[in-house]
Design a protein that fits this description.
Blueprint (H helix, E strand, L loop, with lengths): L6 E3 L2 E3 L4 H8 L2 E2 L2 H8 L6 H4 L3 E5 L1 H9 L5 E6 L7 H17 L3 E5 L1 H7 L5 H17 L7 E5 L4 H12 L4 H8 L7 H11 L4 H6 L5 E6 L3 H10 L9 E5 L27 H9 L9 H7 L7 H10 L3 H12 L5 H26 L3 H4 L5
Parallel strand pairs: 5-6, 5-8, 6-7, 8-9
Antiparallel strand pairs: 1-2, 3-4, 4-9
Helix pairs in contact: 6-7, 7-17, 8-10, 10-12, 13-17, 15-17
Bound molecules: tryptophanyl-5'AMP.
Length: 374
């Protein structure tokens, strides 16, 4: 890999991602001003749209057109339960809640315990299944509407998923799977089949209502390869192509790449972290600061490469004016990294105290959200 190059697949993000280049590589569309104006007709623009954190899509205009004609879309998103939830995962889920609230959409939330069993050498089926339920607590804690939300672990509802996954699998060749995901002869055969299971929830409402129902999938752009396949297969098996909307990655606290469950545990903050862990991780994070205080004052910091600034942008400063102020203070050299980190620590600790309380309360709500049958 050349020094400036990067890799984005559903299982790996390496290097500094150039999102303009990625849109070209994946063949998605950037969300432009016209599309933002169109969303604004229906809902106040979420800060993640205003800041282009959600920046790319496939056929979002089509799904909005259908909505405008009275043909409501449903939402579909998910999680691969390989570990505790980290703050990066919350980015698409917070946005999904905004879409549910704004458009009154039903949500199907897939927990791919099968995927994580197949792709993670060390995890047993029991562990990924139990993590699906632990991760679901984080979803519920964000306040989704239980009447409109169904969360399911694949192995609990496989009787529903499997016949439709077979329909998908029959239309995907090994050569396509290799080209899209980079599989090799060493990939286990379950992994090669898995994408068919991730396709099915995009069709759930069409299957249930026995007519084409539009689907919108919010996710970070690493999952796009799966849905490229789903969209290719959908019309061949009688379903509409799902639309999707993609976000960028909350970066690793260590500097480059996405915040990832396969990275070092100190490169990310889990929703279950204690205040001490949050403090240790943030205070030892990489920043866009200079080597000395003198240089920082003279040259200013570099928010564009700073994960601390990304944390404010993605999650911890939702007021645009205040965010601009932080950026200016940093660039002008008035703000030192230690001070900036200490302020972020307080915000993250406060957020997590509340989230952890809601997460515990969610245990009692699990049975309302977790389906054993679709
Ligand atoms: P998983 O568990 O890797 O990630 C869950 C969701 O979080 C997004 N994501 C991030 N977003 C922002 N910053 C980050 N650092 C970051 N890391 C991960 C992912 O894109 C995803 O939206 N196979 C999937 C589970 C799945 C799914 C879906 C995801 C099944 N069906 C439909 C999205 C949509 C997975 O392992 O996600």
């Amino acid at each position: 890999m050349a020094e400036k190059d990067f890799i984005v697949t559903p299982w790996e993000v390496v290097g500094d991602v150039d999102y303009t280049e990625l849109v070209k590589r994946f063949g998605t569309q950037e969300i432009d001003e016209a599309l933002l104006a169109r969303i604004k007709k229906h809902a106040p623009l979420h800060y993640m749209l205003r800041r282009k954190i959600f920046f790319s899509h496939r056929d979002l205009d089509w799904v909005l057109g259908e909505y405008e004609k009275g043909n409501k879309f449903f939402l579909y998103t998910g999680r691969g339960p390989s570990d505790d939830t980290h703050l990066g995962h919350l980015v698409p889920w917070i946005f999904t809640k905004y879409l549910q609230d704004s458009f009154g959409s039903k949500l199907y939330f897939q927990m791919t315990d099968d995927e994580k069993f197949l792709f993670k050498e060390k995890l047993s089926r029991e562990e990924t299944h139990s993590l699906a339920y632990e991760n679901a607590l984080d979803v519920i804690a964000l306040g989704f509407d239980s009447k409109k939300t169904m969360i399911f672990a694949d192995t609990d509802v496989i009787d529903f998923l499997y016949p439709h996954a077979l329909e998908v699998a029959k239309k995907v060749t090994f050569s396509t799977a290799k080209a899209v995901f980079g599989f090799t002869n060493e990939t286990n055969i379950g992994g090669i089949f898995f994408t068919s299971i991730q396709s099915v929830p995009a069709f759930i409402e069409s299957i249930k209502q026995k007519k084409p129902v539009p689907c919108l999938i919010p996710h970070a752009i690493d999952q796009d390869p799966h849905f490229r396949i789903t969209r290719d297969v959908a019309p061949k098996i009688g379903f509409p192509k799902p639309s999707s909307i993609h976000c960028k990655f909350l970066p690793s606290l260590k500097g480059s790449g996405k915040m990832s469950s396969s990275g070092s545990p100190d490169s990310m903050i889990y929703t279950t972290d204690s205040p001490e862990e949050v403090e240790r991780k943030i205070m030892s994070a990489f920043t866009g600061g200079r080597d000395t205080i003198e240089e920082q004052k003279r040259l200013g910091g570099r928010p564009e490469i700073c994960p601390i600034f990304s944390y404010y942008t993605f999650l911890f400063e939702t007021d645009d004016e205040k965010l601009k102020e932080i950026e200016q203070q940093c660039r002008s050299g008035k703000l030192m990294c230690g001070e900036d980190k200490a302020r972020l620590c307080e915000r993250v600790k406060k957020f997590l105290a509340e989230h952890q309380k809601n997460r515990e309360a969610a245990r009692k709500q699990l049975s309302k959200f977790m389906a054993k049958k679709i």
